[in-house]
Sequence to fold (793 residues):
Amino acid sequence: MSRVRQKLLLLLILAAALGVTALLWRHEQQNVAITRQAQLDAELRGAAARISQRMVAYEQMLRGVQGLFATKNIGRQAFRAYVESLQLGADFAAIEGVGIALIVPQSDKHKHVERLRAQGFPKYSIWPAGERNSYAPITQFEPFIGRNRSVLGFDPLDTAPRRAAMEQARDSGNAALTGKIQLITRPETEGESGFLMFLPIYKNGSPHDSVETRRASLLGWVFAPFQMSSLMASLYGESSLSTEVRIYDGVELSARTLMYHSAAADDTPPGERLAATEYIQIAGHTWTMVISLRPGTADQSGVDKSQLIGISGIGLSLLLTLLTWQQLTGRMRAIALAGQMTQELRESETRFRRMAQYDALTEVPNRALFGDRLRQAIVQAKRDQTHVALMYVDLDTFKPINDTYGHHTGDLVLKAAAARMQACVRESDTVGRIGGDEFAVLLHLVDDRQDAMTVAEKIRQALNAPLELPGAPVLAIPSSIGIAIYPEHGSDDALLSRNADDAMYVAKALGRNNVQFYRQELALAPPEAVI
Amino acid sequence: MPRPLCRLLLLVLLCAAGTARAVGGPDCSRPMTLALHEHGLLYSSGTGAGIDKDFADELIKRSGCKVTVTIMSRARIWQLIESGALDFSLSGISNEARDKYAGFAWYFANKYYLLVRKDTKVQKIADFENDPQLQLGVIRSFRYSKNANRLVDQLNTQHRVSYSSGLDPLYDVLALNRIQGMIIEPFDYSQVAGSSIRDSTIIVDTGDEPIPHGLIMSKQSVTPGEQDKWRALVKAMHADGTTLRIFARYFSPDLAKAMVNF
Fold:
């Protein structure tokens, strides 16, 4: 497999593994989102139900006050005693108090103010000041303590949100809520928002089964102001620490309409987080409740395993790719190793073959290879009817040089001699070392004896040329050369070799440093006869 | 008329009245409870009036019982009907789950429709389902006709449903485009027609048949025999034209007739 394909395959495997990881991660994220959404929905349902039920309880409490007025005209003391007897404890902590606002026509305004002042409130007046057709001043607000005293005489009909709820309660005969308002019992600096609940009081015995009759028989309202944060604090039920609740007045989600926020310090808009929304209708008024995950609490539940899946998946993907890479390149690396070993084996074989065929010192063919080439040359010459010359060359002064200057110098002499002889022959000819200081030269295709003699003389003179070696004086290497020509001096390699050797000995016998052809008569004669 | 004869006649009449109630009317030996919920023409807390209110007044009058009427969310009504803390409610529709804890006395039937913003280009109920951007507003615990229920259930699994305890907020958020559709009934038409969303919405047929609506009776607190007596009252209201007259106050005569005579 090519490298490109290999890389493509690896990329494909990595991409597939990461793709599967991404799918699993996404699936887990979706599951977590579904689980969290279900948890939020359940919490939302619970919280909405608790608020609705609590508001029903508040309404029921106010209906008790309303019922009190349905029996007879109630005096201040009776009303105070009734509210005290309600014992509005922790469940009603959000209620600032219970009050009465009675309709006062403009014509009765003066009389009304005088009556209230006479009842022990010398500074009583209806406020905000101004002339209106009718008023609905707060004539009693219990418990009449602390900041609650400040509401006496306040006319809620004069402010739009309060008037709308009062008119709704008047026309329907039911409880009605105002929108988000700043309670007058609370200074604006506290920033606490609240709302009022109104219930109408009709004249005893008057019909109030239609809008018209209700309007006609209206005496005033009983009401209660609520502080939103206290209302939420007094609810009992399970709530998660990882969620936060926002309640908006109406359906508009803005800071202006925000009535309650369980984590007021956090300003992150809920829209950017997982959230559940429900619209709650209470006494004809709408609140929007939004429950959202608190920032930074997403992982606290331990439900989310997507990060673990993501990290594990990426790790496994890389591991799988690495293993695949090892599988793929392992084969490649085995092939490369085998190739390298084969190469080494081949080189080793070549080296051994060379060692078997060539002389390690002079790097010219040894006796075995030279003999082989001689036999081939004779076969070729026999087939072509040509001539072959075989020379035996003996270095005359090698032994004394070797003895005098040592083996190292002797070896250098042998290498130099071999090199010089090779320089004197054609590439097709062969120079071989067949003994200690004995060389042989094979000349293919010689035309006649003169050709051989010319080469032999050239060799002899080349060897005689001065030779400079380290640690020795300038030397000359005189040589004795014997020549045998195929076919006239021998028809086979053995005979030809012996005859060339004989001729070399004749050359030595004739005073060395000369060249001799094989001559049968000399060869058979004793050495002294040659001289 | 001689005085003893008068006394006798009065006694006979009183006995006859008492016998009639004992034989045909419901058992009024304890105060009973009935809950209404705010829903278009059925009941409005703003005016304290509506079809359900009128029907309840007439039914209570005919029963001769002391029945306390309260207003609460539909979800709470069903919960209290199931537990037996609430005896009656009105305009309820049945399903398998509700049949286990509630009995019904039918008095009208109507179809459900999808009210949808025009800019969604929705022409049929499937168009709404197939566009993942569209959110549906419903009243919590409300059930509808077959196709409408399927739409609500399907969208709920995709978190495409906004819940409300009443209908009015849904109109508001529909106008604000936070939801793009809601399921309505004919008694919601007047609210649609009178509001700002009239020109920006269309009504899409769900393809369902009219669904009977009726008096809901808690099986926990109203025995089967008593349920029959209340059914008889409802039937009598239909037979003498009272139910039709009530509906005719709120609808055109033809529509009222079509709803009551199902």
Q: What stands out?
A: The CA atoms of residues 79 and 85 of chain A lie 10 Å apart. Residues 362-530 of chain A form a domain with the Alpha-Beta Plaits fold (CATH 3.30.70.270). Residues 3-71 of chain A form the longest helix (69 residues). The longest strand of chain A covers residues 218-227.
